User: Fold this.
Amino acid sequence: MSEALLRIAEALERLAPAPRGAPDFDRADAFVWHVGPDRLEPVAVVNRVDLGLLVGIDRSRDTLLDNTLQFARGLPANNALLWGARGMGKSSLVKAIHAEVLRQRLTLKIVEVQREDLPSIGRLLTHLRAAASQRFLLFCDDLSFSHDDQHYKSLKAVLDGGIEGRPANVVFYATSNRRHLMPRDMIENERSSAINPSEAVEEKVSLSDRFGLWLGFHPCSQDEYLAMIHGYCAAHGLKIDDARLRAEAIEWQATRGARSGRVAWQFFTDLAGRHGIRI
Assistant:
C-alpha cells in the first residue's frame, strides 16, 4: 500500500512540480520567466544589437532611454507600449536600451515573460517584490489579445491594478503591432453587436491606456533602409562598392515587398555570409 501511495505522490509531483525558490539575481542581468514549475532562468548572452545601429526611430529611442534611466536611478517611470509596423525595431530597442543602461554602470535586470504565461504574472511579481534592492524591467514581446482571450485581465496587476499595485522596483514594457492590443475589426464587431456599444470593449481597449508611454513605429523610407545597411556594414567592417550595395539592397527589399529594419538585417546577413564576414 505504501509503495502505491509513493508512486501516486511521484506521479503528482511530475504533473505539478513544486515551484523553485527565488533565484540568485546576481547570476545574470537577464532572465526568462517559465512556468511548470515557476522559475526564472538566467540568460548568459542576450540576443541584441547596438543602440547606435537602430536608425529612423530617434524620438522613440530617446524617450524610452530617458524613461528607463529614470527608473534605473530609482526615480518614477512609466510603463511603455511600443506599437506599430512589423520589423521596425520595437523589441530590439528594448534590449538595446537595457544594454545602454548597463553600460552607464546602472543596475537593471530585464525579465522576459511570454504572453501565454501572463496568468502567472502575480506569482512572478511576488518574486520581484521580494528582491526590493533590485530594479526590474519586465518585458513582453508581441503582446496582443484575441476575442475570447482573458489573459489581459492578469496584465492589469503589473500595470496598476490590484490592492498591492505594481511593485515600486518593477516597470513593464510591451511591444505590439496593434495600438489597442486587439484587432480593429474585432473592436468594431463587438461595438456593432453590443447592447451598449460604448462599453462593449472598454475593458480591453482601456488596457492600452494604462501604459504611460505610447511609442509609435512606422514603416521606414528607402533612405533610412539604406542607412541601416550602411551602419551594419561599418560596424562589422564589410567594405563594398556603394553603387553595388545600393542596387543589391533595393533588389532585396523589392523581392520581400517591404522595407523595415528586419529586412535590412536579413539582407546584411546574406551579404556578410557571401563576403565571409562573421557576425
Observations:
- The mean pLDDT is 85.
- The first strand starts at residue 30 and ends at 34.
- Residues 10 and 17 are 10 Å apart (CA to CA).
